[in-house]
Design goal:
Order of helices and strands: HHEHHEEHH
CATH superfamily: Winged helix-like DNA-binding domain superfamily/Winged helix DNA-binding domain
Number of domains: 1
CATH architecture: Orthogonal Bundle
CATH topology: Arc Repressor Mutant, subunit A
Helix content: over 70%
Largest sheet: 3 strands, antiparallel
Strand order of the largest sheet: 1-3-2
Shape: globular
Number of helices: 6
Strand content: 5-15%
Number of strands: 3
Radius of gyration: 17 Å
CATH class: Mainly Alpha
Length: about 140
């Protein structure tokens, strides 16, 4: 079982790394973002009143110091703001996120279309990956 687990983990890592590289390229070329920036803006979009830095970092699965370094350039360019201890998305950030979302969706759709898998197979795979994430966090 350990060889199977190792092979699965390596394959999962490779697929994620290739997708991240493709997304970093496309988001960078078209929007001046990388996938991490996109994820940060997306996390803020779901919280219109903002998030404290620690909660944002937890959502992004990274240390608060990493999140702070990531958001400083976005704050300087007006994509987000920090006020009263909260990080909030600004209108320019919402607009950029909407544009970047279309690019992100297209990259993922292209990758999935190349698989030729039907909707049921993709739904099963997504459910398995969600359970894997919960298991890795000790929440299963």
């Amino acid at each position: 079982m350990s060889t199977r687990a190792l092979n699965f983990g390596n394959t999962l890592w490779c697929a994620q790394a290739v997708l991240q590289q493709r997304l970093d390229e496309r988001l960078g070329d078209w929007h001046g973002l990388n996938l991490g920036d996109y994820q940060l803006l997306s996390a803020l979009e779901s919280q219109p009143h903002g998030l404290v830095l620690r909660a944002l970092a937890k959502t992004l699965l990274q240390a608060p110091a990493v999140t702070l370094r990531q958001l400083l350039p976005m704050e300087k360019t007006g994509l987000l703001e920090r006020a009263q201890g909260l990080v909030r998305l600004r209108p320019a950030g919402r607009q950029l996120l909407a544009e970047a979302r279309r690019t992100t969706e297209a990259v993922y759709a292209q990758a999935l279309q190349a698989l030729g898998a039907d909707a049921s197979t993709l739904a099963d795979c997504q459910q398995l990956l969600e359970r894997l994430a919960l298991s890795a966090r000790g929440k299963l």
